[in-house]
Task: inverse folding
């Protein structure tokens, strides 16, 4: 199961840095959470079911 604590932490971190959240999506098949943020969608992060997260380039 996806760790909700890590997802909330990352979501709040982006928000605290005044980055608008454009996309917040949970993929049931892959069990990942995808967050896309920034004025020009320049920030994209994937959080896996273990709570590990990585930036998408």
Result:
């Amino acid at each position: 199961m996806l760790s909700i604590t890590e997802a909330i932490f990352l979501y709040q971190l982006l928000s605290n840095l005044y980055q608008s959240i454009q996309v917040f999506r949970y993929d049931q098949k892959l069990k990942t959470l995808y967050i896309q943020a920034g004025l020009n969608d320049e920030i994209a992060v994937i959080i896996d079911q273990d709570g590990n997260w990585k930036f998408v380039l």
About this structure: DSSP finds one helix and four strands in the chain. The radius of gyration is 11 Å. The mean pLDDT is 82.
